[in-house]
Write a structure and sequence with these properties.
By secondary structure, the chain is mostly helical. The chain has 6 helices and no strands.
């Protein structure tokens, strides 16, 4: 069972909050991005999937450098930098237009992947490092809970917002 007292540890609580916030932003962004690609840019579902490849490549690159960054600069600094990068990229992506060249979007997506991967690695390090080694599975479970809970919250709100805004719900 999850002992709620664990969240009194600021390292675990801040790691969980960062992970949940990153998941809310990421899942919400993916929901909007697929709509943008398919309905604004007239991409097919296959082209939309290909359009997200730079994000995945950014994740791959970010996860290879994140452990070294955490070891060198510490969890707090890497998490703060990753959250700043992620927020900056998401803010810049909010200005996309119909005629925005794809290469611009691709570069932004790759930086988003780098930011999110560093955020997830540093928050995972914070959560698993905050519990005793004998309870490492519990730290991992909290990590999964915050990511999935944050993502589910965003999907629910995003879908509800789109349906109510366009009058699909009566």
């Amino acid at each position: 069972m999850l002992d709620i007292k664990l969240f009194k540890n600021p390292r675990l609580a801040s790691g969980a909050a960062a992970s949940a916030l990153g998941s809310v932003a990421f899942i919400g962004f993916l929901f909007i991005l697929t709509q943008y690609f398919q309905f604004v840019r007239d991409f097919t579902p296959f082209e939309t999937g290909l359009g997200i490849v730079p994000l995945v490549l950014g994740f791959f690159f970010g996860t290879t450098i994140a452990p070294r960054l955490v070891a060198r600069f510490g969890t707090k600094l890497v998490a703060a930098g990753a959250m700043t990068l992620t927020a900056s990229v998401l803010a810049s992506l909010s200005f996309l237009q119909i005629d925005t060249p794809y290469w611009v979007i691709g570069i932004q997506l790759s930086f988003l992947g780098i930011g999110l991967s560093n955020l997830y690695v540093s928050s995972t390090d914070a959560m698993t490092g905050a519990v005793p080694a004998a309870n490492a599975g519990l730290g991992s479970a909290v990590n999964n809970l915050t990511r999935q809970g944050g993502g589910a919250k965003r999907k629910k709100r995003g879908a509800y917002g789109c349906t109510t805004q366009h009058g699909y719900l009566t």
